[in-house]
Amino acid sequence: MNVVVCVKQIPDPAAPQRLDPETKTLVREGKLILDDSDAYGVEMGLQLAEQAGGGEVTLVSMAPGGETSGLRTALAMGAAKAILVSDDALKGSDALATAKVLAKAIERAQPDLVIAATESTDGYTGTMPVQLAELLGLPSVTFAKKVSVGDGAVQVQRQTEAGYDEVQCPLPAVVTVTAGVVEPRYPSFKGIMAAKNKPVDQLTVAELGIDASQVGLAGAGQEVTEVEDAEARSGGQIVVDEGEGFQQVVQFLEQLKLV
Ligand SMILES: Cc1cc2nc3c(=O)[nH]c(=O)nc-3n(C[C@H](O)[C@H](O)[C@H](O)COP(=O)(O)OP(=O)(O)OC[C@H]3O[C@@H](n4cnc5c(N)ncnc54)[C@H](O)[C@@H]3O)c2cc1C
Questions:
Q1: Number of structural domains the chain divides into
Q2: Among 30, 151, 192, 250, which lies 20 to 30 A Cα-Cα from 14?
Q3: Which residue among 3, 23, 91, 120 has the greatest number of ligand 1 atoms within 8 angstroms of its CB, and so is best to mutate?
Q4: Whether residue 120 has its Cβ less than 6 Å from ligand 1
Q5: Closest Cα to atom 52, ligand 1: which residue?
Q6: What pLDDT is stored for residue 69 in this prediction?
Q7: Does residue 234 surpass a pLDDT of 80?
């Protein structure tokens, strides 16, 4: 069972984020970390390969400056190897361009299953995986809260507002997983040491046979024209409970027509 897991490497959300004043796109320099959303995908891939009694997990990532820190974290969890696409021409790529690049990289791995998170933590368009499935000519099942594989098919409990749907489709396929689908394992010291020597195949846009005018700012279908700071949150109403506090809370909820 060969599983490919998409891994986005993002600027640490705990650090202050910067926008490029010219392109108004997120500055993605220096050390990037494994997107938390993708730790669930990596763990899911490892468990499915183990349950299938063999096979391996290959990571695929598109990131600037040959950055591998986030990939090494996922390799330390137990993934076997990685493909990194890194090229200055990719700067400012939109979700469609990202899908085109990852599709070309994934074709090389010939996977039985492709896993991604429902949405990333920085761009969170939530559109890349389904565009990827379309470009690969594969079926996609999204918002998986439970995944199993058997008899050449994938079975998914697909999260809905009312609960979940039972969905099945033949392999190969693309599945997006929700946070909490599994509990990601912590890399062991042995895993961290082993990850240093695991192969990362680094590729450029040209090596994937992609025309540079199709990706990056040059190929983007949209342009960020203006960025405004989000409105600062107001302090909110403070209720001092001297026995009647609940009444103020009920009144507040009534005003919002919540009760
Ligand atoms: C604030 C902000 C707003 C943006 N708005 C838009 C927009 O409106 N339209 C648009 O087309 N682009 C937009 N982008 C760019 C977009 O984020 C990138 O193109 C990105 O690489 C793919 O989109 P996403 O992160 O939204 O993917 P999503 O669809 O949210 O990601 C879902 C999953 O796909 C996988 N994945 C996504 N990117 C990569 C990657 N580079 N390498 C490996 N796996 C990956 C991961 O598993 C991820 O969890 C925006 C970026 C930022 C930072």
A1: 1
A2: 192
A3: 120
A4: yes
A5: 123
A6: 96
A7: no
State yes or no: pLDDT of 196 exceeds 90: yes
**What are the distances in angstroms from CA 229 to CA 19, 21, 89?**
11, 14, 28
Question: What tens digit of pLDDT does each residue of 56-115 get?
Answer: 999 999 999 999 999 999 999 999 999 999 999 999 999 999 999 999 999 999 999 999
Taking the CA of residue 118 as reference, the ligand 1 atom at the shortest distance is: 32
Which pLDDT band, with edges at 50, 70 and 90, does 148 fall under?
very high
d(C-alpha 72, C-alpha 68), whole Å = 6
Q: Which of 29, 59, 115, 125 to mutate to test the pocket of ligand 1 (most atoms within 8 A of CB)?
A: 125
Euclidean distance between CA atoms 15 and 104, whole angstroms: 32
Say if ligand 1 is within 6 A of residue 131 CB. Answer: no
Output the CA–CA distances (angstroms, integers) from residue 173 to 115, 142, 180, 236, in the order listed.
Answer: 9, 11, 21, 47
CATH number at residue 137: 3.40.50.620
Provide the pLDDT confidence category of residue 17 given band limits of 50, 70 and 90.
confident
Is residue 186 in some structural domain?
Answer: yes
Whether residue 92 lies inside any domain: the answer is yes
**For residue 196, what are the domain limits?**
2-219
Helix%, strand%, coil% for the chain, nearest 5: 30, 25, 45
Q: 124 in ligand 1 pocket by Cβ < 6 Å?
A: yes
How far does the centroid of ligand 1 lie from the alpha carbon of residue 12, in Å?
Answer: 15
- The token pair at 49 is 């390969």
Residue 187 — φ and ψ, nearest 5°? -60, 135
Residue 10 maps to a domain: yes
